[in-house]
Each structure stands twice: as structure tokens, then as C-alpha cells.
TrEMBL record:
It is a multi-pass membrane protein. The lineage of its organism: Bacteria, Pseudomonadati, Pseudomonadota, Betaproteobacteria, Nitrosomonadales. Coiled coil: none annotated. Keywords: Cell outer membrane, Membrane, Signal, Transmembrane, Transmembrane beta strand. The keyword GTP-binding does not apply. It comes from Methylophilus luteus. It holds the Pfam family Toluene_X. This is OmpP1/FadL family transporter. Belongs to the OmpP1/FadL family. Residues 1-25 form the signal peptide. Gene3D superfamilies: Outer membrane protein transport protein (OMPP1/FadL/TodX). Its main location: membrane. InterPro entries: OMPP1/FadL/TodX (IPR005017). It is found in: Cell outer membrane.
Length: 423
């Protein structure tokens, strides 16, 4: 890959990620859906996949796009109860709003049975910002982590025969992380606690997705997808550590990295069934291999600007040991009339984070999601889609080595919208 193309990809993914000041985890660190229809059917999308979000859900579905199509989509997330509680604190995260954005374009290829496209997607992430909470060292300081993932996805779907469609997409994944871990707190000298601020660590990696849709009858479609694991070692960052209690002040490390994160290997199967002309029922079962994706998270910083400081910033490896996750999604679409479609859905995935490894900076503990929305044809070319997703409240109690007996709560509301143009 040339430096020019690398820069272009990085810019495109960074622009997508720019809308995600914090991305709140849903199915682990993944969103439940991509694009408005996928999200409003609660992620029950592999057997439906009929707009440009098929690039990120099931590229075989691109074959259902019979004319050039442009989708522009976005979401606004409002946390209603993202709270960390311990014997000294009960604080709500100050970053209550998250803005997600993306889009896609696809068109049939002339003289072929294939449709190709490219899309930009906010994939997910996690993050919380807790301002001026009470530390275990008797002062107040900030605690935050902003971790986001975005994708640029080119892909193609081809209709093999009247029943079978196959597709493939290339996932170009960009991830970034920033953290403030009591950056103005220092206690006990070099052998004690030194808070830090991490900035500009990022990763750019590639992966792929394969998809299939098989139309058993005009009313029944079966589908399956496979997504390969994508490692996300975030490097190239800087870290400033507070060694005030050791008489060194603030020390800057010019080479910082965070390793141990990955997007998991996934296998999904689904079906879509039309019991009547106006109704579409969809189901998806998705296996997410978190056990092989997020185990130990390692922060490492070297090259300090003060030779008296430790050569390697001594922050311990954080155990994660995530468990594999089964996600069950059910969605329904009802054609109210020739111009209006109503959507609803439910998504469930058991929290993959072991209780003992819970922490307020990676709050991927959400399990149930309910969705409701509608699409309306403006005219023969334009379609507007919008709706709401409710991430139902969940609470985890755990023991923290830093905070003691702790509790993490999470709940949020998301507004989804999309504007589509066909030619």
C-alpha cells in the first residue's frame, strides 16, 4: 500500500470516527446494526441486507440493489444512566451524547450479475468520561477512556443463479484510543502510583467478510456470513505520566501503545420470511469469538524525556478474559401502505465481560435492545428512515483493586436516521 493510499484511507476512517466522541459498546464493542434498516430491525439483517449497509452485514445482499443507490446515515446516542459507584463516588459520565455517522454507495456492474459498492461505517467502541471523581489517594481527578472503531468497506455481491447470491467485502479498520487515568495524581514516589494521560494511539488493519443468501422460495430466504478476526494494536501514541511525588514532575513518553484489542471472528446465520405480502419477519443468530479477541490489555510507554524516570512506564497489564457471545436478533417490517414501512426488533447478547474484570472505562455490559421506527418514500427517488433504539438498563456489582466494592450501571437511548437516493 502506498503512503498516499494509506493516508487517504486513514483520513476517510478518521472522518467517520470524528462523529464518535465516545462510542458506547452494545454487542461487546460492536454496534447491533449498521444503517437505519439494519439497526431498526435490531440487527436481524443477514437475510435482509438490501441497502448499502449490506457491505457490513452481508455483502451477498448487494445483489438486491438493482439501480445506483446512495445512503447517508447517522445516529445520536444519549446515555441516561452510565454511572460508576464505589465507597467514595457515585458519578454519572459527563459525556452524555455520542454522534455516529456513515454512508454508502452501490451500483450494478454493467453486463454482469454483480453489484459493487463502498461504505463508511462507525463500527463501535466504548468509553466514559468521569470528571473530578474522588481517587483512592484522597484527591479528585479525571478518569476517562475514549475508544472508537471505524471502517471503510469496499465489496461486491454476485447472483450465481435465481436462488443463490454470494458476496465478499474488505474491511479496512481504523481504531483510536485516548485515556486520562488520574493524570494529575502522584503518590508514593517511583514505586507508588503515577497517573497518566494517553493520546493519539491508533491502528489501521484489514479484514474480510464473506456472505451468502439463498432464496428457498419467493417468501423464504436463508443466509450466512463469516467475518475474520481483526487485530487492533494501537501504536504511535504519547503518554504523560505524573511523577511529582518522586520529584520528577510530568514526564512525557514519546512512544506509547495499547495492545490486546481485536474485532472478533464472527459466524452468523439467519432467515427472512414473508408470511403475507405486507409482512417481513427476520431472525439472526450470531456467534462472536470474544475469547480469542480480548484477553489481556497491555499499555506500554517508552522513550521518556527525563532519564531519571523509569525507561518503561510501569502500568500493569489489565486482565480482560472476555467470553464468547451468542447474539440473538429478531426483527419485523410491515408495509403500512405503498409509501410507509414500520420496523421493530429485539436484540439480546449476554454480557461477555467477566464480573471480576468489569471497569467503568469499558462498559460493554449492555444486553437487551428494543427498536422501533419507520421508513417513508418521499418520491420515486428519495427515502427517509428514522427510529429509536432503547438499550435497556443493566447493573454489574464487582470488586475493584483500585476502588473496592463497586457498581457499574448503563442505559441509553439512540435515535437513528437515514436518507437514501436511488437513480
Amino acid at each position: 500500500m502506498t503512503s498516499c493510499s494509506y493516508s487517504a484511507i486513514r483520513l476517510a476512517t478518521a472522518l467517520t470516527l470524528a462523529f464518535t466522541s465516545t462510542a458506547h459498546a452494545t454487542n461487546g464493542i460492536n454496534l447491533i446494526g449498521f444503517g437505519a434498516e439494519s439497526s431498526l430491525m435490531a440487527g436481524a439483517d443477514v437475510a435482509v441486507a438490501r441497502d448499502t449497509s449490506a457491505l457490513n452485514t452481508n455483502p451477498a445482499g448487494l445483489t438486491q440493489i438493482k439501480a445506483p443507490l446512495l445512503d447517508m446515515f447517522g445516529s445520536v446516542l444519549r446515555t441516561t444512566d452510565l454511572v460508576h459507584k464505589d465507597p467514595r463516588n457515585e458519578e454519572h459520565a459527563s459525556n452524555r451524547y455520542t454522534f455516529l455517522g456513515g454512508g454508502g454507495y452501490a451500483r450494478p456492474l454493467e453486463d454482469t450479475s454483480c453489484t459493487a459498492g463502498i461504505g463508511f461505517f462507525a463500527q463501535g467502541g466504548a468509553g466514559g468520561v468521569f470528571d473530578k471523581i474522588r481517587t483512592p489517594f484522597g484527591n479528585r481527578d479525571d478518569l476517562s477512556s475514549l475508544f472508537g472503531i471505524a471502517k471503510v468497506i469496499p465489496g461486491i455481491g454476485c447472483q450465481v443463479n435465481e436462488k443463490l447470491s454470494l458476496g465478499a467485502s474488505l474491511n479496512i479498520v481504523y481504531a483510536s484510543i485516548e485515556q486520562d487515568f488520574f493524570a494529575n495524581t502522584s503518590f508514593g514516589g517511583l514505586a507508588g502510583f503515577s497517573g497518566y494521560k494517553l493520546e493519539d494511539a491508533s491502528a489501521l488493519r484489514t479484514g474480510f467478510k464473506l456472505g451468502m443468501q439463498y432464496r428457498v422460495t419467493p417468501t423464504l430466504t436463508l443466509a450466512a456470513t463469516y467475518t475474520e478476526k481483526t487485530e487492533l494494536p494501537m501504536t504511535g501514541g504519547t503518554l504523560v505520566a505524573d511523577y511529582t511525588s518522586a520529584g520528577l514532575g510530568q514526564v512525557k513518553y514519546s512512544d506509547a501503545s495499547v495492545k490486546g484489542f481485536a474485532l472478533p471472528r464472527e459466524v452468523a446465520v439467519g432467515l427472512a420470511f414473508k408470511p403475507a405480502d405486507a409482512w417481513l419477519l427476520s431472525f439472526k443468530l450470531n456467534w462472536m469469538n470474544w475469547d480469542d479477541a480480548i484477553n489481556d490489555v497491555r499499555l506500554r510507554a517508552t522513550k521518556p524525556n527525563n532519564p531519571a524516570a523509569p525507561a518503561v512506564y510501569p502500568f500493569p497489564t489489565a486482565a480482560a478474559d472476555w467470553k464468547n457471545q451468542w447474539v440473538v436478533a429478531t426483527g419485523v417490517a410491515y408495509n403500512w401502505d405503498d409509501r410507509t414501512t414500520i420496523y421493530a426488533g429485539h436484540n439480546y447478547g449476554k454480557n461477555p465481560i467477566p464480573r471480576e474484570n468489569t471497569n467503568p472505562l469499558l462498559a460493554g455490559i449492555l444486553e437487551h435492545h428494543l427498536t422501533l421506527g419507520a421508513a417513508r418514500k418521499i418520491d420515486q427517488n428519495w427515502l427517509a428512515t428514522g427510529g429509536v433504539e432503547w438499550m435497556l438498563p443493566v447493573k454489574v456489582k464487582y470488586d475493584s483493586a483500585l476502588f473496592g466494592a463497586s457498581e457499574l450501571r448503563n442505559e441509553a437511548i439512540v435515535l437513528h436516521f437515514m436518507l437514501s437516493r436511488r437513480w
